[in-house]
Amino acid sequence: MLTKIWQFIKRDPLRRGVALAFALFLYMHLNFQLNSDQHLTRVRVPVNLALSPELQEQTGKLPEISLTLKGKPGAEFVQSNVQVSVKVSSQNRQPDGSFLVKVTPKNIRITDRKFSLYSIDFPEDGNLRLNLLSRRERHLPVKAAFDRAVPEGKKLSYETVPEKILVTGPENVLTELSEVHTLPVPLSEAQEFFEFNTPVTLPNGVVASPATILVRVSLSSLHSKRAMRLPVAILSSPRSNLSASLAAPLRRGAEVILKGPAEKLAALTPDQVRVFADTVRLTAPGRSQIQLRCAVTVPQIEVVSITPSEIEIQLTTKTSK
Questions:
Q1: I want to staple 52 with a disulfide (CB 3.0 to 4.6 A). Which of 89, 116, 167, 296 is the partner?
Q2: Are 11 and 3 in contact (CB under 8 A)?
Q3: Calpha distance 178→50 (Å, rounded)
Q4: Residue 301: closest CA among 321, 281, 279, 272
Q5: What SS3 state is found at 287?
Q6: What confidence score (pLDDT) does residue 300 get?
Q7: Integer Cα distance of 271 and 292 in angstroms
Q8: pTM reported for the whole predicted model
Q9: Residues 167, 137: contact at Cβ < 8 Å?
């Protein structure tokens, strides 16, 4: 083989030597190219979307494109070394409601120098179609939630600061919202009045401003009524020369209607309530109509009515022994 090459060169040394050198150079160059580059076909890479404020991504996976990368022999591909990002605005909106953006090599950044972009395989011609949500704003009232039922005998009232907040999110989600709720406010061992800071709960993809609400809570006692039948006592001065007694027997006593907090009324005992007729100011014997009065030793208990409202008292002169 070498003999034939030498005989070939001897016939026209200059021109045939140049041709042979060029052939050797071309062979070595092609061989270097084949051995120095390898192709990684259809590498799938997520696309980061830089959206204008009025747009929002749908929940789920990021859109992807497929690339062919050219790499050095033995180089290990790491997907995070390839970043693809595109800007999307309302100008990319199509008549069918989707959004169309063009992915070009300018949108692709490869941080590993052992690899370079060979081609964009998908989407075709780099035209990436996206399904995005329109982003809107609404002012919605805030409703407080509580971790348990209102304690028995208590009435709960509250206010939120602020009363309404600005919520921002997908238009199709916001149209379903009429109000937003706080996280549960604790009522265990709650005082009659307290304040509590709590975040609001929101659907996925929705944000609020402010995101934390001040809830002012008042727990007032519920007033209920209770009837008690009690004996009537006659109040007189020990230094008086008159003796007082009921003109007619009141066998069942007087009925008293009381009003106050439910738990206090339920615990009330007869010795804490006294019905009486006050005869201290009477100075002459005979019969007198005296209005009945009631005294309660428990705070927050009020007397609604006494039946009968008045009784007849017989006053007689005391006899000396």
A1: 89
A2: no
A3: 30
A4: 272
A5: strand
A6: 86
A7: 17
A8: 0.49
A9: yes
What lies within 8 Å, CB to CB, of 136 at 6+ separation is: 168, 169, 170, 171, 174
CA–CA dist 258, 225 (Å, integer):
5
Residue 158: closest CA among 120, 118, 186, 125: 186
Sorted by sequence, the CB contacts under 8 Å of residue 51 that are 6+ apart come out as: 57, 88, 89, 132
Residue type, 72: K
Q: Which residues are bridge partners to 170 per DSSP?
A: 135
Number of residues that this document lists for the chain? 321
* Angle, in degrees to the nearest 10, between helices 13-36 and 2-11: 130
Q: How far is it, in rounded angstroms, from Cα 168 to Cα 235?
A: 73
Q: How far is CA 264 from the centre of its chain?
A: 37
The model's pLDDT over 156-201, given as tens digits with 9 standing for 90+, comes to: 999 999 999 999 988 888 989 999 999 999 998 888 899 999 999 9
Give residue 155's identity as a one-letter amino acid code: K
Q: Tell whether the model's pLDDT for residue 60 goes beyond 80.
A: no
Task: Kindly give the residue spans of alpha helices, DSSP state H, lying in the chain.
Answer: 2-11, 13-36, 171-174, 262-267
User: Residue 21: phi, psi to the nearest 5?
Assistant: -65, -40
Instruction: Please choose, from the candidates 269, 257, 256, 255, the residue with its C-alpha nearest in 3D space to the C-alpha of residue 298.
Output: 269
